[in-house]
Amino acid sequence: MSFVEYSDFIQDGDVAIVYLGHESMMPVKVQQGAQTQTRYGVIRHSSDLIGQRYGSKVTCSKGGWVHVLHPTPELWTVTLPHRTQILYTTDIATITMMLELKPGSVVCESGTGSGSLSHAILRTIAPTGHLHTVEFHQQRAEKAAEEFKEHKVDQLVTVRNQDVCKDGFGVTGVADAVFLDIPSPWEAVRHAKTAMKRHGGRVCSFSPCIEQVQRTCEALADQGFEEINTLEVLLRVHDVRTVPLPLPDFGQDPSAQTPPDGSEKTPPNQASFSLKTTTPPREIPGHTGYLTFATKPRT
Question: Are 286 and 234 in contact (CB under 8 A)?
Fold first, then answer.
């Protein structure tokens, strides 16, 4: 099992995603002889998981069942243990596209946090790229390094425990892209420039407050970055529901023949049919943060 390569069968030591429902999933470290409790009963790793094909339906001890899925960055984002606030798929998709990441890219990231974006970057740059990720908090850095090894992507990433605003990324002239998710990104802009390759590259800063964005844009301009722009990604989820739609009553057909006895037929009850429709939300409490992008010119 690896987060950047697909495996067919569940093996001892894998991290699998137990799917109980659309909004109920959990990661499980598969171990010989271990058990996992769910609301549908117990899952026994030795008999129910190991050797089974990913995507299989597994029957629990109470008779209920779950699906066991291969881990992906998207599934990890919604099931990972939170050590910090994380980035979600809506922002991650925009970041990986706008930073122009591809297999073989070298990326610098700070801070690592819970590793949500890190896993998406690693899948994008595999198998020949590399991620240099910096985390200020020692315990978080150690836990992130442990997870990368457990997920079999540690050969693609270097974790450093240091203050990026003071000490930089620990590399010079190697990065195709830099991502900043720290309280004062303007203090790390010069270090981002130092870490980037001479032929240029892209930088992205994630900040929840517009005042942070303003100071970061000023620092980017002072360091000679070009094409500076900021955007906000808002997700609008439509509510799907079934509604009855009455058919209009246009009255009696004037061309219809009157029966010989002079009586008139009683009109039938007004008919209706059902259809599915969507309703947009009245409010969108969707602000996560502002994404500021810039390009380093060739030097």
Answer: yes
Identify the CA nearest to 287 among candidates 212, 201, 176, 207: 207
- Provide DSSP, the chain: -BTTB--SB--TT-EEEEEEETTEEEEEE--TT-EEEETTEEEEIIIIITTPBTT-EEE-TTS-EEEEE---HHHHHHHSPPSS----HHHHHHHHHHTT--TT-EEEEE--TTSHHHHHHHHHHTTT-EEEEEESSHHHHHHHHHHHHHTT-GGGEEEEES-HHHHTTS-SS-BSEEEE-SS-GGGTHHHHHHHB-TT-EEEEEEESSHHHHHHHHHHHHHTT-EEEEEEE----PPEEEEEEEEPP---S-TTSPPPTT---PPPPPPPEEEEEEEE--S-------EEEEEEEPP-
C-alpha torsion 22→23→24→27, nearest 10: 90
Count of C-beta atoms within a 10 Å radius of residue 76: 21
Residue 135 CA to residue 160 CA, distance in Å, equals 6
What is the torsion angle, in degrees rounded to the nearest 10, for the CA atoms of residue 109, residue 115, residue 117 and residue 120? 110
Please state, in angstroms and rounded to a whole number, the distance separating the CA atoms of residues 198 and 173: 6
Given a cut of 70, is residue 265 above it in pLDDT?
no
> Among 117, 16, 271, 101, which residue's Cα sits nearest to residue 133?
117
- Per residue in 127-136, pLDDT (tens digit) is 999 999 999 9
User: What does pLDDT average to over the chain?
Assistant: 92
Contact (CB, 8 A) for 108 and 178 = yes
Residue 215, amino acid: R
